[in-house]
Amino acid sequence: MAHDSLSLLTVLGSAGTVVKLVLLVLLLFSVISWAIIFIKYFSLRRDYRESVRFQEFFWKGSNLSDVYSKMKHMGESPAARVFRAGYKELKAAGKAGDGDTLGRRAAGMDTLKRTLDRTCSSEMTRMGQLVSFLATCGNTAPFIGLLGTVWGIMDAFHGIGIKGSASLAVVAPGISEALLATAIGLAVAIPAVVAYNTFLHKIRTIGSELENFSSDFLNIVERDLHRIQGDS
After folding, report:
1. CB of 15 within 8 A of CB of 152?
2. Can you say whether the dihedral through the CA atoms of 33, 38, 41, 43 is positive or negative?
3. Which residue range is the domain that position 166 belongs to?
4. Number of folded domains that form the chain
5. What residues does the MotA/TolQ/ExbB proton channel domain cover (predicted)?
6. Among 80, 105, 102, 77, which Cα is nearest to 92's?
7. Using one digit for the tens of pLDDT, what is the confidence trace for 42-89?
């Protein structure tokens, strides 16, 4: 009977208004964080796989024009978007066509590098969307739970003062209500922190791959430019 009187549902039902409000906020945080965890897990896994797949396809292409013309059947990926932005900049600067001066081609390398850097940065920002909420949840959920705990303990002592008794039967329900808020706060924060660190590592890994791909792209263009200069 004692176990039943201190069951979770009983504790929740007898909790004070402030503690219930704290638990409601923590529940909201939990629902949002788990939704983000599932969304970002599948999104980042897709981005990584598609980027690896595109880079394999890229190195099998005979030239940049061939890769661009055949990439339509490839899935969208960060690496593909970086390549597309770089190739369009090449076309705009005349590096993918004929009839432009070597001086103009050389001057366009800085613009190309800025375009690639900007696109890489944009992809990193896109992949990092929503992830920051997990850090916020991990940092604040324990404190929100602690607020509920402190308030619950205050309530328990207030009840003791009114009843004039400090027996276990009087103290235990209020203390259990108070500690429940901290426990739930930790239960919300721990998965959020683990997921945040995991996603951050994955984003950095993809970002490093994008930087390497961007450097390889620039090296290919510079090599072609030097070959053209040598032929002329």
Report:
1. yes
2. negative
3. 2-231
4. 1
5. 76-211
6. 105
7. 999 999 999 989 988 888 877 888 888 878 777 678 999 999 988 888
